[in-house]
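Structure tokens please, single chain.
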Amino acid sequence: MLAFISFFAFLLRVVVPSSYYQVDYKSFYQLQEVNQNIDWTNPNIQLLEAAIFQCTNEQRVINKKSIFIYAEDLNKSATYHSISMVKYNFFSHTNNYKKKMKAFYQRMKFFGASFNGCGENIAYSEYDGSYNYLEVARDIAELWMDSEGHRMNILNADYKELGCGIAIKKVSGLYRVYATQDFGSKRNIPH
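Here you go.
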């Protein structure tokens, strides 16, 4: 049910709370809503996506890399993939259920992103009702930082733009958060 709601929230999303992306991670972490426990019956998807984005930028700063710029098109492709993983019950970079959306670069292109270099991270983890948005986001960012290939994507100096998308599924009384990050380097500019 949550995946169904998340899918329609994604389709209806017109405005992203841009203030989430216009502050540095330290200021973002001070926001009251970021430190509130998640109401899993009505989660703020955009807030959790922004929290993952900000936790990723914290890792960039710690490792002396420039911070990512938020990219709406990458956010849409990442969200699409997380929703697809929930909808079709798979966990992979490859979507075998939609031929034109099979690879991450196809999804990015579909949503208007065109880069001369791109990458993707995926993860999932399960939570109970005692977690706030920042705790979940930090946990997911740590999962990626503890994995060599995912860490390389996060710290890749060529990647300049980032979008983070999530979908949530209830599994055995816990809430499984599927998270996708789509990265882009230099944008291709049509001639």
